[in-house]
Amino acid sequence: APVATGTAHAKAILIGEHAVVYGHPAIALPLIPLRTIARLRTVPGPLSARHGDQRVRVEDLPEAFAPVGVAVTAALAHFGLPGDDLEIELDSDIPPGAGLGASAASAHAIVEAVRVHAGQDLDEEARFELVQTAERVAHGNPSGLDARATRARTPVAFTGGVTSDLHLGGSFSFAVADTGVRSPTRDAVAGVRRFVEAEPDRGSELLERLAELTRAAGRDLGAGRTADLGARLDAAQEALDALGVGHPAIDRLLAAARAAGATGAKLTGAGRGGCVIAVADSPERAAEIVTAMQDAGAVGGWVVTAAGR
Ligand code: MEV
């Protein structure tokens, strides 16, 4: 039986990804139904992780799982606990490498399981830093947006490493779907960096454009304007395409979403595959858009709603 468990949820970036890495604002939504559970067990031997049917010492985890080892090791060190005779196991509904924050959610779940095991409190900033330690191994240079949004219970605005609650002037419905194409966040972020270095004027113009669209989207959310919000997403997709993070599989799902009545749609997360997000004028329409995207090849789809408070 586990000695401690921790959970966290997925997130979808509504707008502002990539530009956020350069200090611009972004808006993200929690995807609470998609969860990761971390279970910590006592098993004699060195600190290990359950990997498939195997028990692997955390130092020997394959590269893709290295952040798991980093999260558990950093969290144990934070509480001054030895790692011997412990095993960590993850159970996740969140598709990895799809831009839904799977790695940040895993790190949060692990940190929480270790905190419960330690029987101590952990303030929000220390928690964030532990998750960021794992995210640096997963992504290279994470903005911190995923680490914040996978803890948030409501839509958040993110600027300069800090989140603030967002005022919503009505209910919003979104359709999120997975292209099934996997692309490491690290590579997409590095690709944008190369673009911005090679073409600084065009690069900063596109990043500024994304920042402006994100601020406008925040105002649309505040005023309950679904159609305008959709138009911002469409425009953001054009800027993201120009930065080189588009993909034909993304375009196929966006076309299906728009044909099914989305007011606008774009990629969500790092792009070059991964997931897309569309704005709908009702939860029923969002469900239809999910179905349309699945008919167009999406391997997973979710309706996300967010209501004003
Ligand atoms: C990835 O979910 C979001 C990016 O903006 C990278 C980051 O914020 O670290 C592409």
UniProtKB/TrEMBL annotation:
Metabolic or biological pathway, per its Swiss-Prot or TrEMBL entry: Isoprenoid biosynthesis; isopentenyl diphosphate biosynthesis via mevalonate pathway; isopentenyl diphosphate from (R)-mevalonate: step 1/3
Source taxon at top rank: Bacteria
InterPro entries: GHMP_kinase_C_dom (IPR013750), GHMP_kinase_C_sf (IPR036554), GHMP_kinase_N_dom (IPR006204), Mev_gal_kin (IPR006205), Ribosomal_Su5_D2-typ_SF (IPR020568), Ribsml_uS5_D2-typ_fold_subgr (IPR014721)
Residues covered by the GHMP kinase C-terminal domain: 224-297
Keywords: ATP-binding, Cytoplasm, Kinase, Lipid biosynthesis, Lipid metabolism, Magnesium, Nucleotide-binding, Transferase
GO annotation (BP), single: isopentenyl diphosphate biosynthetic process, mevalonate pathway
Pfam family, one: GHMP_kinases_C
A GO molecular-function annotation: mevalonate kinase activity
Classification via NCBIfam families: mevalon_kin (TIGR00549)
Protein name, entry field: Mevalonate kinase
Organism whose genome encodes this protein: Occultella aeris
